[in-house]
Amino acid sequence: MGFGIGDLFWIFLLLTSLQPLWQKRQIEYRRLRALQQFQQERNSRVILLIHRQESLSFLGIPLSRYITIEDSEQILRAIRLTPPDVPIDLILHTPGGLVLATEQIARALIRHQAKVTVFVPHYAMSGGTMLAIASDEIIMDANAVLGPVDPQLGNYPAASILKVVEDKPISEIDDQTLIMADLSRKAIGQVQRFVRTLLKDSIPKQKVLPENIESIIEALTTGRVTHDYPITIEEATEMGLPVTVGLPHSIYDLMDLYPQPQGGRPSVQYIPMPYNDRRPILPMPKGRPLEEPNQMT
Asked: Residue 47 CA to chain centroid, in angstroms?
């Protein structure tokens, strides 16, 4: 018995509805294969922290993606799965995020015994810059940028809130602004202490010269430029940060597999198994979805 036009229509509709799922499975498989190949080339644990947010929106309302507690949980897990003598390569593409989550990741990176390398193909702003400072080497594209790490309280830079208190008589300042100024002073002090900890930790590895530490802290944390100010490779090198120019071409190939998302997708990804497990990734049987790897900020 042959198919009628109505039957063909429903078959076409079914195949059309399955196509996005098939494409998603294919891109996930290609990502895992690319990650595995890069790990084998570098003999390292590779972790991606990618926040695509340039045009992401919901019902026309812009949405932002940034470093979150979920991100820190997943990256800490990836670091725990990595033997102490295996290097870590962290690929960053992020506007920053929560201070708490960023500090947790940064502390885990500086405690890892083997070399930690951060790759920046495009930008690693704010908290992303803090993670870069926590590494032993920062490798950037010639046009990539870092950013200041000065704290923000709500929609306002902490340094700008303090400037208001300095410029106006206290009798003309409301209590809420005074409270915000007190919080701003504490926030700047906390960030400066943590950045100092990261930079001093690098001294035994000769990453940052001791005489450059205070000038780097001054440049990054005091709000002398806007929070979205792009710090170029030339400026970062002049500060004394250990920046190297020239990314492996495979980094660009990996980034091509992470285009601007059209819907929800994990932002951190790594091979979800202990590092020493070198079993090949096999195609998934039909009818079973490819397991989504853990991810984060």
From this structure: 10
